């Protein structure tokens, strides 16, 4: 028996990077997945890679829009019959120092990460509480723990996700719904590999394991939190950082 056999998962920002790795891992463990992404074509391509309509569906979703997030979750229930796992992963960066950051850049990042996670958590919890079971996994960041230069918007949003998740976990625990958080560190992806070499090298000096993480290593932790292996865990924050800044 695979860990997520017969369960349905929704993953926002699931068309690429960490989100796609999570979707891929979940499918291998027996889940059916619905990928929500702002880029519908990319989401559809990802769903095809994961096995097509019997296994994976794609829905265009702007997570800052409550109606679209609700529709994403409703689509999972309508197509596959339940919602067992919700992964709030969608995110953007708009890095700049406070002196140079615009209000729009600040608001955009807060909206996608924090409001997006709240929209997804709220809707998923409403469905799961009726089922008396479910697991919500919110993706934060090491930046939300320690703060990073040029990321007052991102660090604030990712720290907020931790507080949001802990409060939500307390609200829905007695309904059988669990809410947990992952804080990835330096994970090898298209976004991180685009950073300047000097920035990459500096981050590497902070990692005791002396390497960047891979997306599948975050996905494995998401699988643990989504499955019954973590059945007595809620409101927890798991760092996937190679020991960086512990």
TrEMBL record:
One of its GO terms (molecular function) is oxidoreductase activity, acting on the CH-OH group of donors, NAD or NADP as acceptor. SMART domains: PKS_KR. It holds the Pfam family adh_short_C2. It comes from the Bacteria. PANTHER family: 3-OXOACYL-[ACYL-CARRIER-PROTEIN] REDUCTASE, CHLOROPLASTIC, SHORT-CHAIN DEHYDROGENASES/REDUCTASES FAMILY MEMBER. Belongs to the short-chain dehydrogenases/reductases (SDR) family. The keyword Lipoprotein does not apply. Keywords: Oxidoreductase. GO terms for biological process: fatty acid elongation. This is Putative 3-ketoacyl-(Acyl-carrier-protein) reductase. The keyword Transmembrane helix does not apply. Residues 7-190 form the Ketoreductase domain. It comes from Actinacidiphila reveromycinica.
